Amino acid sequence: MSGDSDCTRTSPSTGSPSDIEFLPDRRKYVCSLSPDLITKAREELQEKPEWRLRDVQALRDMVCKDYPSLGTCLDDAFLLRFLRARKFDYDRALQLLVNYHTCRRSWPEVFNNLKPSAIKPVLESGFVTVLPHLDPEGRHVVCIRPDRWTPSNYPITENIRAIYLTLEKLIQSEETQVNGIVILADYKGVSLSKASHFGPFVAKKVIGILQDGFPIRIKAVNIINEPRIFKGIFAIIKPFLKEKIANRFFLHGCDLNSLHQNIPPVILPEEYGGTSGKLDISAWNELLLASEEDFLHDFSQLVLPCDSSPHDMLRSVQFVPSSKTLAQSTRI
Protein backbone atom coordinates (compact mmCIF):
# COMPACT_ATOMS: atom_id res chain seq x y z
CA MET A 1 0.00 0.00 0.00
CA SER A 2 2.77 2.43 0.85
CA GLY A 3 4.16 1.92 -2.62
CA ASP A 4 1.03 3.51 -3.99
CA SER A 5 1.42 6.55 -1.82
CA ASP A 6 5.05 7.60 -2.14
CA CYS A 7 3.81 10.48 -4.18
CA THR A 8 3.67 14.14 -4.90
CA ARG A 9 0.51 15.85 -3.73
CA THR A 10 -1.27 18.75 -5.34
CA SER A 11 -0.89 21.98 -3.44
CA PRO A 12 -1.18 25.70 -4.12
CA SER A 13 2.57 25.88 -4.68
CA THR A 14 2.66 23.01 -7.14
CA GLY A 15 3.80 23.95 -10.62
CA SER A 16 2.14 23.33 -13.92
CA PRO A 17 1.12 19.83 -14.99
CA SER A 18 4.15 19.63 -17.22
CA ASP A 19 6.39 20.43 -14.24
CA ILE A 20 4.72 17.77 -12.11
CA GLU A 21 5.18 15.09 -14.70
CA PHE A 22 8.93 15.06 -14.17
CA LEU A 23 9.13 15.21 -10.39
CA PRO A 24 11.45 12.38 -9.26
CA ASP A 25 9.62 11.07 -6.18
CA ARG A 26 6.74 9.38 -7.97
CA ARG A 27 7.24 5.65 -8.30
CA LYS A 28 6.83 4.02 -11.65
CA TYR A 29 3.67 1.97 -12.03
CA VAL A 30 4.08 -1.73 -12.78
CA CYS A 31 0.95 -3.65 -13.76
CA SER A 32 0.26 -6.74 -11.63
CA LEU A 33 -2.79 -7.96 -13.56
CA SER A 34 -2.80 -11.42 -15.12
CA PRO A 35 -3.28 -11.70 -18.90
CA ASP A 36 -6.89 -12.74 -18.31
CA LEU A 37 -7.59 -9.71 -16.14
CA ILE A 38 -5.88 -7.41 -18.62
CA THR A 39 -8.32 -8.74 -21.22
CA LYS A 40 -11.24 -8.31 -18.81
CA ALA A 41 -10.19 -4.74 -18.02
CA ARG A 42 -10.00 -3.97 -21.72
CA GLU A 43 -13.45 -5.42 -22.41
CA GLU A 44 -15.32 -4.19 -19.32
CA LEU A 45 -13.47 -1.03 -18.31
CA GLN A 46 -12.16 0.22 -21.66
CA GLU A 47 -8.64 0.00 -20.23
CA LYS A 48 -6.02 -0.20 -22.97
CA PRO A 49 -2.58 -1.17 -21.60
CA GLU A 50 -0.84 0.76 -24.35
CA TRP A 51 -2.72 3.94 -23.36
CA ARG A 52 -2.88 3.38 -19.60
CA LEU A 53 -0.15 5.80 -18.53
CA ARG A 54 -1.34 8.39 -21.03
CA ASP A 55 -4.79 8.20 -19.43
CA VAL A 56 -3.33 8.53 -15.95
CA GLN A 57 -1.33 11.57 -17.03
CA ALA A 58 -4.45 13.13 -18.54
CA LEU A 59 -6.28 12.77 -15.21
CA ARG A 60 -3.27 14.13 -13.34
CA ASP A 61 -3.18 17.18 -15.61
CA MET A 62 -6.89 17.78 -15.02
CA VAL A 63 -6.41 17.62 -11.23
CA CYS A 64 -3.50 20.03 -11.31
CA LYS A 65 -5.32 22.47 -13.60
CA ASP A 66 -8.80 22.41 -12.04
CA TYR A 67 -8.04 21.45 -8.42
CA PRO A 68 -4.49 22.52 -7.51
CA SER A 69 -5.51 22.71 -3.82
CA LEU A 70 -7.09 19.26 -3.65
CA GLY A 71 -4.23 17.85 -1.60
CA THR A 72 -4.37 14.47 -3.31
CA CYS A 73 -1.90 11.76 -4.10
CA LEU A 74 -0.85 11.87 -7.76
CA ASP A 75 0.77 8.46 -8.07
CA ASP A 76 -0.05 6.46 -11.19
CA ALA A 77 -1.39 3.57 -9.12
CA PHE A 78 -3.59 5.80 -6.97
CA LEU A 79 -5.15 7.69 -9.88
CA LEU A 80 -5.63 4.46 -11.79
CA ARG A 81 -8.15 3.32 -9.15
CA PHE A 82 -10.43 6.21 -10.08
CA LEU A 83 -10.07 5.68 -13.81
CA ARG A 84 -10.97 2.01 -13.49
CA ALA A 85 -13.94 2.78 -11.27
CA ARG A 86 -15.32 5.08 -13.97
CA LYS A 87 -14.30 3.06 -17.03
CA PHE A 88 -11.56 5.46 -18.04
CA ASP A 89 -13.88 8.39 -18.52
CA TYR A 90 -11.66 11.30 -17.48
CA ASP A 91 -14.46 13.63 -16.41
CA ARG A 92 -16.22 11.06 -14.25
CA ALA A 93 -12.93 9.85 -12.75
CA LEU A 94 -12.07 13.42 -11.77
CA GLN A 95 -15.50 13.92 -10.22
CA LEU A 96 -15.05 10.69 -8.24
CA LEU A 97 -11.64 11.82 -6.99
CA VAL A 98 -13.04 15.18 -5.86
CA ASN A 99 -15.97 13.41 -4.18
CA TYR A 100 -13.55 11.05 -2.43
CA HIS A 101 -11.84 13.99 -0.76
CA THR A 102 -15.06 15.88 -0.13
CA CYS A 103 -16.51 12.90 1.74
CA ARG A 104 -13.39 12.54 3.86
CA ARG A 105 -13.38 16.22 4.82
CA SER A 106 -17.09 16.63 5.46
CA TRP A 107 -17.60 13.86 8.05
CA PRO A 108 -14.94 14.26 10.76
CA GLU A 109 -16.64 11.76 13.11
CA VAL A 110 -15.74 9.05 10.62
CA PHE A 111 -12.48 10.23 9.10
CA ASN A 112 -10.57 11.85 11.95
CA ASN A 113 -7.92 9.53 13.43
CA LEU A 114 -8.89 6.83 10.94
CA LYS A 115 -6.60 3.84 11.44
CA PRO A 116 -7.05 0.12 12.17
CA SER A 117 -6.07 0.29 15.83
CA ALA A 118 -8.76 2.92 16.44
CA ILE A 119 -11.51 0.54 15.31
CA LYS A 120 -10.12 -2.61 16.94
CA PRO A 121 -13.26 -3.14 19.11
CA VAL A 122 -15.40 -3.20 15.95
CA LEU A 123 -13.10 -5.71 14.30
CA GLU A 124 -13.08 -7.92 17.38
CA SER A 125 -16.87 -7.87 17.50
CA GLY A 126 -17.03 -9.43 14.04
CA PHE A 127 -19.25 -6.66 12.69
CA VAL A 128 -17.32 -6.65 9.41
CA THR A 129 -14.92 -9.13 7.90
CA VAL A 130 -13.85 -10.48 4.52
CA LEU A 131 -14.36 -14.12 3.64
CA PRO A 132 -11.08 -15.94 2.91
CA HIS A 133 -12.08 -17.21 -0.53
CA LEU A 134 -12.92 -15.33 -3.73
CA ASP A 135 -16.15 -16.00 -5.58
CA PRO A 136 -16.10 -17.53 -9.11
CA GLU A 137 -15.75 -14.03 -10.60
CA GLY A 138 -12.61 -13.36 -8.57
CA ARG A 139 -14.38 -11.00 -6.16
CA HIS A 140 -13.88 -10.65 -2.41
CA VAL A 141 -16.99 -11.08 -0.27
CA VAL A 142 -17.37 -8.50 2.50
CA CYS A 143 -19.48 -9.90 5.32
CA ILE A 144 -21.37 -7.42 7.52
CA ARG A 145 -23.24 -8.57 10.63
CA PRO A 146 -25.11 -5.72 12.37
CA ASP A 147 -26.24 -8.03 15.18
CA ARG A 148 -22.63 -8.06 16.42
CA TRP A 149 -22.87 -4.36 17.30
CA THR A 150 -23.93 -3.21 20.77
CA PRO A 151 -24.93 0.47 20.48
CA SER A 152 -24.06 1.20 24.11
CA ASN A 153 -20.44 0.27 23.42
CA TYR A 154 -19.72 2.78 20.64
CA PRO A 155 -21.65 4.86 18.07
CA ILE A 156 -22.63 3.66 14.61
CA THR A 157 -19.92 5.81 13.06
CA GLU A 158 -17.33 3.35 14.41
CA ASN A 159 -18.91 0.63 12.28
CA ILE A 160 -18.75 2.89 9.24
CA ARG A 161 -15.07 3.56 9.94
CA ALA A 162 -14.39 -0.17 10.02
CA ILE A 163 -16.20 -0.73 6.72
CA TYR A 164 -14.32 2.15 5.11
CA LEU A 165 -10.91 0.86 6.17
CA THR A 166 -11.88 -2.60 4.92
CA LEU A 167 -12.66 -1.13 1.51
CA GLU A 168 -9.44 0.89 1.51
CA LYS A 169 -7.48 -2.28 2.15
CA LEU A 170 -9.30 -4.24 -0.55
CA ILE A 171 -8.92 -1.56 -3.21
CA GLN A 172 -5.14 -1.76 -2.97
CA SER A 173 -5.45 -4.87 -5.12
CA GLU A 174 -5.58 -4.32 -8.86
CA GLU A 175 -7.61 -7.51 -9.11
CA THR A 176 -10.28 -5.94 -6.90
CA GLN A 177 -10.19 -2.74 -8.92
CA VAL A 178 -11.09 -4.78 -12.01
CA ASN A 179 -13.39 -7.44 -10.54
CA GLY A 180 -15.18 -5.42 -7.87
CA ILE A 181 -16.57 -6.81 -4.62
CA VAL A 182 -19.69 -8.53 -3.30
CA ILE A 183 -21.37 -7.66 0.00
CA LEU A 184 -23.11 -10.21 2.24
CA ALA A 185 -25.14 -8.54 5.01
CA ASP A 186 -26.70 -10.72 7.71
CA TYR A 187 -29.51 -8.88 9.49
CA LYS A 188 -30.37 -11.68 11.89
CA GLY A 189 -31.43 -10.32 15.26
CA VAL A 190 -31.47 -6.66 14.25
CA SER A 191 -34.08 -4.91 16.38
CA LEU A 192 -36.04 -1.77 15.68
CA SER A 193 -34.07 0.14 18.32
CA LYS A 194 -30.80 -0.81 16.66
CA ALA A 195 -32.12 -0.01 13.19
CA SER A 196 -33.14 3.44 14.39
CA HIS A 197 -29.47 4.44 14.55
CA PHE A 198 -29.32 4.16 10.76
CA GLY A 199 -31.45 7.21 10.01
CA PRO A 200 -31.70 9.27 6.81
CA PHE A 201 -28.63 11.39 7.63
CA VAL A 202 -26.35 8.38 8.10
CA ALA A 203 -27.95 6.52 5.19
CA LYS A 204 -27.40 9.42 2.80
CA LYS A 205 -23.78 9.83 3.91
CA VAL A 206 -22.90 6.15 3.62
CA ILE A 207 -24.59 5.67 0.26
CA GLY A 208 -23.00 8.85 -1.03
CA ILE A 209 -19.58 7.41 -0.23
CA LEU A 210 -20.24 3.97 -1.67
CA GLN A 211 -21.91 5.21 -4.87
CA ASP A 212 -20.06 8.39 -5.69
CA GLY A 213 -17.16 8.84 -3.27
CA PHE A 214 -15.04 5.71 -3.32
CA PRO A 215 -13.26 3.97 -6.23
CA ILE A 216 -14.71 0.51 -5.85
CA ARG A 217 -17.21 -1.45 -7.94
CA ILE A 218 -19.93 -3.05 -5.80
CA LYS A 219 -21.31 -5.80 -7.99
CA ALA A 220 -23.91 -7.30 -5.64
CA VAL A 221 -25.40 -6.76 -2.17
CA ASN A 222 -26.88 -9.95 -0.70
CA ILE A 223 -29.15 -9.49 2.31
CA ILE A 224 -29.80 -12.57 4.44
CA ASN A 225 -32.03 -13.13 7.48
CA GLU A 226 -33.60 -9.70 7.16
CA PRO A 227 -36.45 -9.14 9.67
CA ARG A 228 -39.72 -7.43 8.81
CA ILE A 229 -38.33 -4.08 9.89
CA PHE A 230 -35.80 -4.28 7.08
CA LYS A 231 -38.50 -3.04 4.74
CA GLY A 232 -38.42 0.16 6.77
CA ILE A 233 -34.63 0.29 6.60
CA PHE A 234 -34.64 -0.27 2.87
CA ALA A 235 -37.30 2.41 2.48
CA ILE A 236 -34.82 4.84 4.03
CA ILE A 237 -32.00 3.67 1.79
CA LYS A 238 -33.73 3.31 -1.56
CA PRO A 239 -34.35 7.00 -2.35
CA PHE A 240 -30.60 7.55 -2.27
CA LEU A 241 -29.77 4.59 -4.50
CA LYS A 242 -29.22 4.85 -8.23
CA GLU A 243 -31.40 2.43 -10.14
CA LYS A 244 -28.50 0.28 -11.30
CA ILE A 245 -27.26 -0.08 -7.71
CA ALA A 246 -30.74 -0.80 -6.36
CA ASN A 247 -31.02 -3.59 -8.93
CA ARG A 248 -27.95 -5.22 -7.41
CA PHE A 249 -29.67 -5.75 -4.04
CA PHE A 250 -30.86 -9.32 -3.45
CA LEU A 251 -33.08 -10.04 -0.45
CA HIS A 252 -32.93 -13.74 0.43
CA GLY A 253 -34.73 -13.85 3.76
CA CYS A 254 -33.91 -17.17 5.46
CA ASP A 255 -33.61 -19.00 2.14
CA LEU A 256 -30.03 -20.27 1.95
CA ASN A 257 -30.72 -21.90 -1.39
CA SER A 258 -31.51 -18.46 -2.77
CA LEU A 259 -28.27 -17.10 -1.33
CA HIS A 260 -26.33 -19.97 -2.90
CA GLN A 261 -27.58 -18.93 -6.32
CA ASN A 262 -25.47 -15.80 -5.91
CA ILE A 263 -22.65 -16.98 -3.67
CA PRO A 264 -21.63 -20.65 -4.01
CA PRO A 265 -21.55 -22.76 -0.81
CA VAL A 266 -17.92 -23.72 -1.43
CA ILE A 267 -16.75 -20.24 -0.39
CA LEU A 268 -19.32 -19.67 2.36
CA PRO A 269 -18.86 -20.54 6.04
CA GLU A 270 -21.06 -23.09 7.77
CA GLU A 271 -23.20 -20.31 9.25
CA TYR A 272 -24.58 -19.66 5.75
CA GLY A 273 -24.88 -23.25 4.60
CA GLY A 274 -21.37 -23.29 3.20
CA THR A 275 -18.59 -25.85 3.23
CA SER A 276 -15.56 -23.69 4.07
CA GLY A 277 -15.69 -24.21 7.84
CA LYS A 278 -16.70 -21.87 10.63
CA LEU A 279 -16.61 -18.15 9.98
CA ASP A 280 -13.17 -16.99 11.12
CA ILE A 281 -12.65 -13.26 11.57
CA SER A 282 -9.11 -13.48 12.93
CA ALA A 283 -7.23 -13.66 9.62
CA TRP A 284 -8.81 -10.49 8.23
CA ASN A 285 -8.43 -8.65 11.54
CA GLU A 286 -4.75 -9.51 11.68
CA LEU A 287 -4.22 -8.40 8.09
CA LEU A 288 -5.95 -5.07 8.63
CA LEU A 289 -4.26 -4.34 11.94
CA ALA A 290 -0.87 -5.19 10.44
CA SER A 291 -1.48 -2.43 7.86
CA GLU A 292 -1.45 0.33 10.49
CA GLU A 293 1.77 1.99 9.35
CA ASP A 294 0.75 1.82 5.70
CA PHE A 295 -2.55 3.52 6.46
CA LEU A 296 -0.86 6.22 8.51
CA HIS A 297 1.57 6.87 5.67
CA ASP A 298 -1.06 6.81 2.95
CA PHE A 299 -3.61 8.99 4.72
CA SER A 300 -0.88 11.52 5.53
CA GLN A 301 -0.74 12.14 1.79
CA LEU A 302 -4.42 13.13 1.75
CA VAL A 303 -4.30 16.45 3.60
CA LEU A 304 -6.03 19.78 3.20
CA PRO A 305 -3.45 22.47 2.28
CA CYS A 306 -3.05 25.12 4.94
CA ASP A 307 -4.53 27.95 2.88
CA SER A 308 -7.59 26.00 1.77
CA SER A 309 -10.82 25.18 3.55
CA PRO A 310 -13.19 22.23 3.37
CA HIS A 311 -15.69 24.59 1.73
CA ASP A 312 -13.35 24.85 -1.27
CA MET A 313 -13.65 21.11 -1.75
CA LEU A 314 -17.44 21.11 -1.57
CA ARG A 315 -17.95 22.98 -4.81
CA SER A 316 -19.01 20.59 -7.54
CA VAL A 317 -17.13 20.14 -10.79
CA GLN A 318 -19.04 21.58 -13.70
CA PHE A 319 -18.54 19.37 -16.72
CA VAL A 320 -19.62 19.48 -20.32
CA PRO A 321 -20.05 15.73 -20.86
CA SER A 322 -18.03 14.24 -23.66
CA SER A 323 -19.56 11.69 -25.99
CA LYS A 324 -17.62 9.04 -24.08
CA THR A 325 -19.12 10.26 -20.80
CA LEU A 326 -22.65 10.10 -22.18
CA ALA A 327 -22.09 6.63 -23.62
CA GLN A 328 -20.75 5.29 -20.32
CA SER A 329 -22.97 7.13 -17.84
CA THR A 330 -25.31 4.18 -17.47
CA ARG A 331 -22.59 1.64 -16.74
CA ILE A 332 -20.37 0.90 -13.75
Automatic annotation (TrEMBL):
PANTHER family recorded: ALPHA-TOCOPHEROL TRANSFER PROTEIN-LIKE (PTHR10174:SF130), ALPHA-TOCOPHEROL TRANSFER PROTEIN-RELATED (PTHR10174)
A matching Pfam family: CRAL_TRIO_N
Extent of Polar residues compositional bias: 8-17
Domain CRAL-TRIO as annotated: residue spans: 115-280
A GO CC term assigned to this protein in UniProt: membrane
Gene Ontology MF term list: phosphatidylinositol bisphosphate binding
Region (Disordered): 1-21
UniProt name for this protein: Alpha tocopherol transfer protein like
